[in-house]
Amino acid sequence: MCGIVGYIGDKDVSSVVLVGLEKLEYRGYDSAGIAAINDGKLFLKKRVGRLSNLYSLVNGQPINGHIAIGHTRWATHGQPTENNAHPHTDCKGRIAVAHNGIIENFQELKEELEARGHHFISETDSEVIPHLIEEYYDGDLVEAVRKAISRLKGSFALAIFSTLEPDVLIGVRKDSPLIVGVGDGEMLLASDIPAIVSHTHKVIILDNGEIAVLRKDGFEIMDFQGRRREKAVTIVEWDSRDVELEGYPHYMLKEIYEQPEVIEKNLKMYLRNNEFLLLKDTNLRRLLLTKRSILIQACGTSKHAGMVGKYLLERFARLSTRVEFASEFRYMQPVVQPDTLIVAISQSGETADTLAGVRMAREMGLEVLSIVNVRDSSIARESDYVIYTNAGPEIGVASTKAYTAQVLILTLLALELGVLRGIITPEESKHLINELIKLPGKVRQVLDMDAEIEHLAARYQSYNDFMFLGRGINYPTALEGALKLKEISYVHANGYAAGEMKHGPIALIDKNMPVVFVNPKTSVFDKSVSNMKEVEARGGKIIAIATRGDSITPQIATEVFYVPEIDETLVPIVSIVPLQLLAYHIAVMRGCDVDKPRNLAKSVTVE
Ligand code: AGP
Fold first, then answer.
1. CA–CA distance from 301 to each of 34, 397, 546 (Å)?
2. Ligand 1 contact, 343 CB (< 6 A)
3. Measured in whole angstroms, how far is the alpha carbon of residue 7 from the centre of its chain?
4. Neighbours of 536 (CB within 10 A)
5. Sequence-ordered list of residues with C-beta below 8 angstroms from that of 423, at least 6 positions apart, any chain
6. Any atom of ligand 1 within 6 Å of the Cβ of 370
7. Are the C-beta atoms of 317 and 417 separated by less than 8 Å?
8. Alpha helices of 40-190 — where are they, by DSSP H?
9. How far apart are CA 368 and CA 304, in angstroms?
10. Cα–Cα distance between 82 and 61 in angstroms, integer?
11. Distance CA 217, CA 228 (A)
12. Is the pLDDT reported for residue 599 higher than 80?
């Protein structure tokens, strides 16, 4: 969950690295550091806290060199202190390493190295790496790196350089993402594409067990045994605008507002002339038509998308669908029939628990379809099939456009399977396609009411406890709305199935805990109204998400936010948008760092 950037070339190396780290700060921001070779000597600066602290330290200090590495940290071993910040160096300050991942056997290695006279200054696992390389260095840096990493157990993406061989930048990848940017007279290393895209669109995605040896004018890729590997250079579609704020105060708000165009882009790709095209790959279509059940495994927001998918796959495709937290799935000795398709949902495609679930499923001989946003990510590459959500880079830690894109893909999947299995009639299919075509406009209508939501947020931003309730297909929306609020405003917010409230949570109801009730027009509307009345009868303040024209809800709720009417199938996409905006505005009003909330990171690549 840390961010790594490396550069070798003729630009201002500290600027390339620091600006690159800025684009990766969503991966972790406990501390930051940069190492470079300046007039033949190692230049090393680190600061606790945000990257801005490091900027002020480095600015104005010219670095007369052509190589640098940088790191922004999400602490795993050791407090966020300057000593624990990366990059770490060897005893003599001639080798620098930035690391993302966890070295599981670092304690024994540290003891072995200390016994051989090495001196450590940090509490981190990562610091053993430069000392191991120092131990093995015998005039060949690549060879020393190969020997050092052969001793490591765990996950590691590394950026390495040494004053001993100042013309080579080395990248290593095992279980944590690392990509190479192929420039013109320059090369880059980074944890993710946003750090690279303003310098080059030519990218090499390193696979597990690969080492990249980069020089200004070329690169060599090899495996951990030193055997050369031929790798394709791919062209990334993103451009630098995708990773800029473009006038928005926060990436999260920009990404909330990008949702209509993301929906339009996916409809253009997967829907044409009244025909679903998601399963145009005949192998994937055949796979799905032979499966009798689906098991979805994911984390956080992606798991909530999977829960919406369950309702739709069971309703339209009549496929028994189970949804599990990936962090539970991977340890539960699951009983899964061979005719079950495993579906992994992940924005980043790097979430450790979800990736582990994919690997376990494949070891069990099960087939895996992944629904992923980041192209060529680990989960995408290790699945049998992948459907991309095409949401573009999602920089805000709180997932918004990726979530609605995930739900849209699952909706299209359920509908296409329903048609292929003859469960949805041609008339129903035509109606639902018409509703899908209206979807971007419906979301725009909600966005046009942002000011109304901001006023609502102002009235409730001082409350410290919220309950979110929803029934049926609105239940995952309630969970997702609660997660959005808690993760960026640090407000205690819990989501429950509305029908579950009577079995305990109703004891919590009082005037100090607003209840957000997700109850747009669906087949469970009336039932939910009864739940709403139970809350009102106990003095609860209700903030209801209702459908325009609903005259019942305003008689019960304290506040009502109306969303435009749309077929129940698509309600989860429209009704999450006001909750995303509510969470955003409350967090801003509470002075929280919306894009980089405390303790969180965008991509949880450690267990
Ligand atoms: C979403 O707002 C959260 N930041 C988090 O729950 C996230 O959804 C989860 O970590 C899964 O990430 P993934 O989709 O990249 O796998």
1. 33, 11, 22
2. no
3. 25
4. 18
5. 316, 317, 318
6. no
7. yes
8. 51-58, 106-115, 128-136, 141-150
9. 19
10. 19
11. 18
12. no
Tell which residue, 89, 102, 86, has the closest CA to residue 51.
86
CA 146 to ligand 1 centroid distance, Å? 33
The closest of 204, 188, 235, 221 to 9, measured between CA atoms, is 188
- The span from the CA of 72 to the CA of 59, in Å, is 17
DSSP output for 174-214:
ESS--EEEE-SS-EEEESSGGGTTTT-SEEEEPPTTEEEEE
Amino acid, single-letter form, for residue 423: I
The reported pLDDT for the residue numbered 28 is: 66
Ligand 1 pocket mutation pick from 351, 373, 388, 602 by most atoms within 8 angstroms of CB: 351
Catalytic residue among 2, 45, 174, 299: 2
Q: Residue 303, Cβ neighbours under 10 Å: how many?
A: 23
Measured from the Cα of 604, ligand 1's closest atom is: 10
The reply to whether ligand 1 has any atom less than 6 angstroms from the CB of 87 is no
300 C-alpha to ligand 1 centroid (Å): 5
Cβ-count burial of 419 within 10 angstroms (0-12 exposed, 13-18 middle, 19+ buried)? buried
3-state SS assignment for residue 15 = helix
Q: How far is the CA of 349 from the centre of ligand 1 (A)?
A: 10
Query: What tokens does 22 get?
Result: 């800025």
> Which residues are CB-contacts of 565 (< 8 A; sequence separation ≥ 6)?
521, 547, 548, 549
Give SS3 for 14. helix
- Partnered with residue 179 across adjacent β-strands are 190, 205
- DSSP, res 123: S
Query: 153 an active-site residue?
Result: no
Percent helix, percent strand, percent coil in the chain, to nearest 5: 40, 25, 35
For residue 397, the ligand 1 atom closest to its alpha carbon is 4
Find all residues with CB under 8 Å of 250, minimum gap 6, and list them.
396, 584, 588, 594, 595
CA distance 62 to 51: 18
Q: Check whether 29 has a pLDDT greater than 90.
A: no
DSSP labels for 520-533? -SSTTHHHHHHHHH
Burial of residue 232 (number of CB atoms within 10 Å: 0-12, 13-18, 19+): exposed
Residue of 171, 172, 240, 173 lying closest to 377 (CA atoms): 173
CA 52 to chain CA mean position, Å: 23
Amino acid sitting at position 607: E
Residue 2: active-site member: yes
Residues 387-397: tens digit of each pLDDT: 999 999 898 99
pLDDT of residue 557: 96
Judge if the beta carbon of residue 100 lies within 6 A of ligand 1: no
Record the pTM: 0.83
- Which tokens is 249 given? 């105060």
Write down the pLDDT at residue 353: 95
Q: pLDDT digits over 419-455, tens only?
A: 999 999 999 999 999 999 999 999 999 999 999 999 9
Q: Is 346 in the pocket of ligand 1 (CB under 6 A)?
A: yes
DSSP code, position 232:
P
